[in-house]
Amino acid sequence: MAAARSAHAQHAQHAQHAPPQAGADAAREALRAQVAAGLRAGGVVLALRHAQAPGQFDPPGFDLARCETQRNLGDEGRAQAARIGQWLRSQGLAPVVVRTSPWCRCRDTAQIAFGRAEVFSALGSPARSDAAARAAQQASLRRALAAASARRDGFEAWVTHQFVLRDLTGESTTDGEALLLRVRPGPAPTTGALPEAEVLARAWLH
């Protein structure tokens, strides 16, 4: 995370000597390059918050088996997901595993961006879970993140929700934002503690 903050500071300094839009574009591309370098190194997770889905919460009584009862991607969200996939392909990058929350907006983001995905229930929204269920979910995520961090054959892509990413990292994210994660070095957290992830970089890939 220190490296990411340092990069932000350097880009801000450079932007002072460039036209506003040119400086913003340069900063954005530098952050994307940081993400690309981390993905090429492998042993990381490209964690994406689902692309733009109008509204804030699912309707009461929504059914995970029926997309029409949920909050879903809008046209811009689908376009964001497509641009994420296009950017990765332009960099010659492809995940060895794609995992998604069972919510349709996450599954659709993954399908549009990567063309494939396997549902991983631990990536589902914990917003209405009780404390025991949330602790079990966090433990499952930490195990999966540790396994992904130990990979030597590439990187994994996860598509999930703001709440999950905040539990993993303590940081907020916007629609379609990408975080480059690996398990934080050190002992596993005690019962009830957050399954901390180290944020190596973050960028908008769309």
Descriptive overview:
There is one protein chain. With 206 residues, the chain is α/β, with parallel strands linked by helices. It has one domain: 3-Layer(aba) Sandwich (Rossmann fold), CATH 3.40.50. 44% of the residues lie in helices and 15% in strands. A six-stranded mixed sheet has the order 3-2-4-1-5-6, with helices on both faces. Strand 2, helix 4 (104-114) and strand 3 form a beta-alpha-beta unit. Helix 3 packs parallel to helix 4. The two termini are 22 Å apart. Mean pLDDT is 88; it is low at 7-18.
Secondary structural class: alpha/beta
Euclidean distance between termini CA atoms = 22 Å
CATH superfamily: Phosphoglycerate mutase-like
The CATH topology is given as: Rossmann fold
Outline the low-pLDDT stretches. 7-18
Mean of the pLDDT scores?
88
Strand content: 15-25%
The number of domains: 1
Q: Judging by the overall fold, what is the CATH architecture?
A: 3-Layer(aba) Sandwich
Principal-axes geometry comes out as globular
Number of helices: 6
Largest sheet: 6 strands, mixed
Quick summary:
The chain has 206 residues and is α/β, with parallel strands linked by helices. It has helices spanning 2-15, 20-41, 75-90, 104-114, 131-149, 162-169; strands at residues 45-49, 97-100, 118-119, 156-160, 177-183, 197-204. The protein has a single domain, classed as 3-Layer(aba) Sandwich (Rossmann fold).
